[in-house]
Amino acid sequence: MAERRRPMQAQDKLAFLLALVPYLMDRDRVSVAEAAEHFGVEKSQLREAVRLIAVSGVPGETSSYQHGDLFDIAWDDFEENDQIVLTHLVAIDDSPRFSAREAAALIAGLQYLSALPENADRDVIGSLMAKLARGASAVPSQLAVAGSATDESLHLIRDAVADGTQLEFDYLNSRGEHERRRVDPLRIESVDQDWYLRGWCHLRKAIRTFRLDRISDLRATDEPITYRPADVTLPETLFEGSPDDLIVDIQVSASALPLIADYIPEGADLTEDGSFVRTNVRVAHYHGLKRLVAGLSGMVTVLGPPEARAAVAEWAAAGAARYA
């Protein structure tokens, strides 16, 4: 005697219906018996579900159901031959797709992520890129993201952080001076597209932050680090001021204020002026303003001192002259 299947609860029915629609869409034609066997339900339950699908849909612009807003099936085939054929689909057919350009941009971003050392599961990223390519409205452009000059340094530094060994390198500071440093690497961090190493600098006898694109002649050593993360306190902010910093008066868009929060000295005045805020920032050198202003084009104006304005103005003029 055949075992009777237990009646479906409301939750089971909903899950069944949600799974049945894409199952039928993937098949041009399927018998009631085959579909019932696939879902483990009685054939009568399967027929009831198909009849329910045929009166389901999405209301159109009039907020009422019209003929084209409902699913439809080949009724004669269903009633006479116990075959299910969907003849009209709604909602799912109209789901938005990425354009070829959008898919290409996302794939480029995923290629960049797959190149970073921390993203070890590259099979998952590769699978997602393939799905994006298949699901786009057109074939995305073939492209490749070249590795950056810091990729090799990233690998070496991450290994040193994990192994607890010191690093040696030449460092170009913001004043354009080269110095040989020996550092206990404690943490590697990124801000936008830039990577930074934070560690104990044996030359300065203090915690320092180093930008990776200013590091050269990097060498891993077998010397164990002197200071471990538990031995020192890493500041909450990535950029720490020093007594030698220069103060620059600026006017910045209020919406961009959080982007430069690390550069604003503690206790600095913030004066609102419409949609802008007047305050000041600290920099190691006036030439360091170039990068800050370039990253917030149109949102930051240097107000003083005159030397700071001159440094930024000369840099901007030199860039504009290249287009003349």
UniProtKB/TrEMBL annotation:
Signal peptide: none annotated. Residues 248-318 form the WCX domain. Residues 154-219 form the WYL domain. InterPro entries: CBASS_pafABC_assoc_protein (IPR051534), PafC-like (IPR028349), PafC_HTH (IPR043839), WCX_dom (IPR057727), WYL_dom (IPR026881). This is WYL domain-containing protein. It holds the Pfam family HTH_PafC. It comes from Leifsonia tongyongensis. Residues 12-133 form the PafC HTH domain.
